[in-house]
Write the structure tokens for this entry.
Amino acid sequence: MRLMLSIALVLSALIGPIITLPNGAPVSVCETMLPFHGGGIPPLTTASPFRITPVTSVVGSGQQLQVEIESFPANVVFKGFMIQARNRFPPNEVLGQFELTDESAIKLINCGGESNTATHTNTKTKKDLALEWIAPANFKGEVVFNATIAQDYDKFWVGLESVPVKVVETGQNPPPVVGISTTRQPPTTTTVPPYVPRVTAATDSSDPIYQGCGDTKGCFGFPEGCVETRNCRAVVATIVQGERYIFEMKSGYNRPAYIAVGLSNDAKMGDDSVVECVPEQGTVNAYASWTFAGPYGVSRQGIAQNFIRLLEKSYVDGVIHCKVERDAVTTVKGQKFDLINGKYHLLLATGSEADSTHVSYHDIGRHVSGVPLALAEVGPVQGMSKLLLRLHGALMLTAWIGTASLGILLARYFRQTWVGSQLCGKDQWFAWHRFLMVLTWCLTVAGFIIIFVEIGGWSQVDNPHAILGVVTTVLCFLQPIGAYFRPHPGTKRRPLFNWLHWLGGNLAHIIAIVAIFFAVKLQKAELPEWLDFILVAFVAFHVFMHLIFSIGGCASERRNNQRVTSMQMADMTPSRNSMSSMDRKQDAAFSGFRKVMLFFYILIIVAFVVALVVITVLAPIEDAVESIKKQIMN
């Protein structure tokens, strides 16, 4: 088609008839779409300020589609135009027909078919003109809207093309992209099936989206540092061309159902203007939406769609790619977003579910730029620090996998070990139990405060981890208070305290372990799913050691009873109380075995804690390992 236009351009330059057409294009230019302006004036080859924008990228055969002629900047006007829809593939015939919606500005001509071309009726100035096109009833394929726009007598552009529009069978209910609101079918959720991550175009080191990052455009992706290695799970590039602000996004990790970028004043979810790219019916559509802080949500309802334009798109092998232009200055939900003078945090997110009204939680990934950015300033973009998040995980793992587990074990099985040996005026088992549980209390309270500072309030994530964490913290907080006011040994209420103290400690420990399991599912934690196996191994080891110590306790009690019996037969004079007193002054039987097993238990627990903390702090661990490998190879 472009070759045909080039040949026609040469012919027009040679012939150059001196004809002006104030009443629109004639049928004689149906093929060339060249204005007959005096002196053989050639069309401009500079970038056009006009765009041909279909409001949807998919339309049913026989159905109506709105097509807009838009100008950028918005105050640029034009006087004449000619537009038609052509088959994207040879023979590039003109297809469909236009409806006459405004006789004062539009007239229709027949270019091999009835009313299949629209043109102007006068040379009055125009801008943001909308036309209605009806797809042919017997055609399935792709069409491209081709236009000639005349800004003035000697200033016009030929061959302006829209993005391709797919014509499908009627009844597939194609969704809109931008520009108009339509009646939608009831929302149907699209769930992307599980997918084994692999290298795709989104993580290809030769991907063009990474070219010019930090030099001609700003690039931001996750995990942190992926732009430098050209290995992002999701990435957005901000391109500024004068007053044009373009966001190019790409993601193929875990076959996402959407990728979105938001502009935020505070780096927190809520009251943010978002641009989404969503695969639908084999293509990619762009939407403008708005985030809500509590409860978490993103919605397109009530959000104007005319300040974004989908320039490029593709959806191949599960990889979303789109390029969306956004107006430099917009007002959304009463908030002004001035990309020329303002600075904003970038919120980049991908998720596995989306429907016709909104995208769901960003369960695949989310990243926030560390500082507000002026989009016109090109340079490296760093993400928000995750130090507090990692520190929270490390403290909680150390507390409930390490110190709490050991402290509970000592209190239960080592009361009759190291008898006569004291630390700080207390029996060894009690001194160490108190130290470990106070350390658990300190780590838990610190971790609890840190995560509240990091999140800035209550978590809106649909995961019971937060609730379980609060319950654990409350029980942990009450334990030392109850211990401080415990009744003296031998008093009537002492057994009740013993049972409540035992119950509170064990409940806190169990709930904490369950909360850690749920933490693995948190997208923000970026923990690998195989971490569950390590946690299961810890639980199995912990239960096994309790079983070993319980069996050892039973054997020890039987040996002690035998020893008491033999002593009573040797000397019947001492009372039973004196026998018990003598027994408490020495270690219970098999104390050496218990000490060896305790040493073994401590070694394994330390190994578990170290492994879990390292995986948490370096998350995502797979990327950290890959980065280390590359450094070693280099």
Summary: Residues 1-20, 172-203, 572-583 have pLDDT under 50 and may be disordered.
